[in-house]
Specification:
By secondary structure, the protein is mainly alpha-helical. It is built from 10 helices and no strands. The chain has one domain: Orthogonal Bundle (Hypothetical protein af1432), CATH 1.10.3210.
């Protein structure tokens, strides 16, 4: 057991930039830790609002990407043929990274983290479904913010449109997507003048 070494490894997520933004040429994009923090805040407020287990949802949000310390941030793409790594292989890479990272922890901590990650990936519980939808929503919120300075971010909203299922979160997505479409329309109008 080495809690300090675990903390040092997880801290590396503060420096790991989110690959999707890097691929789009965003200068100084958010880190995996930035994303996980915002997701945890969203998970807390929306799990409470929807009467779900907020403790579980927040933990799931905080821990859902910690395996990326070893796996890196392998982006999800809408079309299978665009995936840099097939989904099954990606999950195995992440699982191995998580096992390596949690081997630094006592067995009960390690088991809890692994079980939460597995639950998130399986999306079978209400909390897991909510956190996954919020994961996509947070990505779209960030895309809206980046759309002030960057073009060609439509694919992030397409991902959200296809994957967000929770009715409450779908409504939020529609508002964010509407703001993005308006911003894009305003930008095109100003360019054509």
């Amino acid at each position: 057991m080495d809690l300090l070494e675990f903390a040092k490894k997880v801290r590396e997520l503060k420096d790991l930039k989110r690959t999707g933004w890097v691929e789009k040429g965003v200068r100084d994009p958010e880190s995996v830790a930035d994303h996980s923090f915002m997701l945890a805040v969203l998970a807390y407020v929306y799990s409470k609002k929807l009467g779900l287990d907020a403790d579980k949802a927040v933990k799931m949000a905080l821990l859902h990407d910690i395996c990326e310390v070893y796996s890196g941030d392998i982006p999800d793409k809408i079309r299978d043929e665009d995936q840099p790594v097939p989904d099954s292989e990606k999950r195995e890479i992440e699982r191995e990274g998580l096992k390596k990272l949690t081997s630094l922890l006592p067995e009960d901590f390690s088991s809890e983290i692994y079980d939460l990650w597995k639950e998130f990936e399986a999306r079978e519980t209400k909390e897991a479904k909510l956190v996954k939808d919020l994961d996509k929503l947070e990505m779209c919120m960030q895309a809206l913010d980046y759309s002030k300075n960057y073009e060609n971010l439509e694919e992030f909203f397409e991902d959200g449109r296809l994957n967000i299922k929770t009715p409450e979160i779908k409504k939020l997505f529609e508002k964010i997507y509407g703001d993005f479409r308006k911003k894009s329309s305003d930008y095109l109008t100003s360019r054509n003048k």
